[in-house]
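Researcher: Going back to the complex we discussed earlier. I've cleaned up the inputs and rechecked each line, so this should be the final set. Can you rerun the prediction on the complete assembly and write out the structure?
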Amino acid sequence: MCGIIGYVGTRSPRSLILDGLGRLEYRGYDSAGLALLVGDDNGGRRFATTRTVGNLERLLEAAGADDGAHAALGLGHTRWATHGRVTQENAHPHASADERVVVVMNGIIENYQRLRSELQGQGVVFRSETDAEVLPHLIARHYQGDLAEAVREVLPLLGGHFAFVVAHADEPERLVAARRECPLVVGVGEGEHFVASAIPAFLRETREVMTLEDDEVVSVTSHGMQIFDAHGGRSERAPHTVEWDADSAEKSGYPTFMLKEIHEQPSALWDTLGDRLRPDGSIELDGLGLDEAALARVERIHIVACGTSYHAGLVGRYLIEDWARVPVNVEVASEYRYRTCLAGPGDLVLGVTQSGETADTLAAMRVARERGAHVVALTNVMGSQATRDADGVLYTRAGLEIGVAATKTHTAQVMALALLALTLGRLKWAITEAGALDLADELRRLPEVLETYLASSAPDDVGAVARRYHDRPFFLYLGRHVGVPVCFEGALKLKEISYIPTEAYPAGEMKHGPIALLEEGSPVVVVATDGHVFDKVISNIQEVRARGARVIAVATEGNQEIAGHADEVLWAPRVPALLSPLTAVVPLQLFAYEVAQALGLNVDQPRNLAKTVTVE
Ligand code: AGP
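Model: Rerun complete. Updated structure for the full complex:
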């Protein structure tokens, strides 16, 4: 989950690496470090290393102004602790005993205890509690003048999943890197190369990107790149050009990435529809790895995902089951991967993951694929691990999302699932052509509907309600039918960025336990959008109000009834009931955002979290 970056080239690496770390900070931010290869007093080279606890600002302060020495290359790291507490000693980069080898790593070396004991038996003294520190010691022991060769020899000794970049003071113009099941990309510039966990780290400098396969070793200098496979054979591969524009890694005038990304939802939806929804209402989903006949034969769908992506999957179930009449099982990936997997040939398994790197989702997809199911990755990141592990890909086109709390990727996932549901519905003759055309029109209308909403005074109204309730110690979220996943998502948003405990329940379940939590003044957020369960939800509202709770209702614009039942109303744009998760979730994103703002919290970097969860 950490962010790593290395630079070698003709420019000074210091600012490029610090800049890159700033764009990787969403991956982890409990400590950070920087190592620059600079000249020493004897005309040789040494690593100048700075490591700090806390976020990048602390590293920037500690690194101070340029020390004047021209650095030949550099490595940087922003950490999300897995092995070892958050201390300066555990912050990366880690060095070999003679400080000639320096490494930054993301991931976990699962057999590090054994490797550490072996190295200690050979007299190595460890300076940190991390698993990563075995790397510089091992590489130093295998080094005989060729860093890439030493890394190639060390790789088979390592268990787990990881990506790392290493430099040796005796090879001042070379970085070597390797990966196994963790992301690592090479940025190819003019007379320079970057190696990083993710493209945003160098997007301002180059859009030419090269991806690495598992257990490959890449060696980069200013002008050249060599890729070796596990046996030392050379691989040739051309870089590809990424389309993300560099501004997506900037706040563009917004105070936070999260707010910017909430406001980018209309364009995320529009781009996800893109040329897939044709003017005549037909839908073209290529890349699934299934032709129309095979899609029409799909009899069961399993959706595996984590967190917010899981909530998108839950919405997808309502759409697919209603429009296509195909049974859908939606499951948290970390559970699915360890259950007896009953997916098999004829089943479609969707791995929903915005990053395409979530360890549990990747594992769940692998389990299903081994059983013969057709696995499709629904992801936002081209070339991510999920796309390589799947038989097909359905991309959301939400653009880069940096805020740890997912917003625009969630609604884009729901939109992509809606396109799939409608396609299946048509192929299976489960929906009339007129019905399908109406739904296609509604989907096309959605980006504009949200744009109008976000430009209206409604977001300010949400802010006013949030400021009235921001000091409450607990929020209960209730909803029915498609309102249930909206509640789950709203409650997750609030707890992850405001640290206020929340519970989210199907409203009908409330009487079976959660109602005991309520006391005079307890805030209850109720998704009460128009639809066939509206009256049922109103009954649930009565029940909680009878216990003294204060109701904050999310209701459909124009609904006349809700005012008589709720203490506060957060309006959501009017769309057909089954599509309401795409609009009703937005006021809840804003509500969570405004509560966290009122509490003075850093919404883009909530504590203990990281954007991409590449560990189990
Ligand atoms: C969302 O706000 C969370 N930060 C988190 O639940 C996230 O959705 C989850 O980790 C899954 O990530 P993915 O979509 O990249 O797989």
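Model: Worth noting: The chain has three domains: 3-249, 257-455, 458-598.
Researcher: Good, that matches what I expected from the previous run.
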